[in-house]
Design brief:
Helices cover 32% and strands 14% of the residues. It has 4 helices and 3 strands, in the order βααββαα. It has helices at 28-33, 35-43, 71-79, 86-96; strands at residues 24-27, 48-52, 55-60. The protein has a 3-stranded mixed sheet. Strand 2 and strand 3 (55-60) form a beta hairpin.
């Protein structure tokens, strides 16, 4: 079994540990040296403030993507949606979309 190889710079480990509720300050130099630790922290929900010469430069926060929309929110959206007449929709589609089926490669030699 091969030994586990740790990547990154050990001296930054304490810097990458978040303080409760506050973004962790990371210098540009630290970020360049160990961007993998910041990326892992972002995946775990941590926020960072990128600093240059001790001055805040940028905020890095993880993007929160919802997996599902709550039922009540969906019902509220559909409650204000217009009513669709299915017969009118079908006739509009029939006018807009050709009904003939053809081979798109016909005449191309393929």
């Amino acid at each position: 079994m091969s030994p586990v190889v740790q990547r990154g710079t050990e001296c930054y480990a304490h810097v990458m540990t978040p303080v409760k509720g506050q973004p962790t300050a990371v210098s540009v130099r630290q970020f360049v040296a160990d961007s993998g630790a910041v990326t892992r922290g972002l995946r775990q929900g941590r926020a960072y403030t990128l600093t240059l010469n001790g001055e805040p430069l940028a905020k890095m926060v993880p993007i929160r993507r919802r997996q599902a929309v709550p039922r009540e929110e969906v019902l509220a959206i559909f409650a204000t949606a217009p009513v669709i007449d299915l017969d009118e929709l079908r006739s509009d589609l029939d006018v807009s979309v050709g009904q003939d089926i053809r081979d798109p490669y016909e005449g191309t030699g393929l």
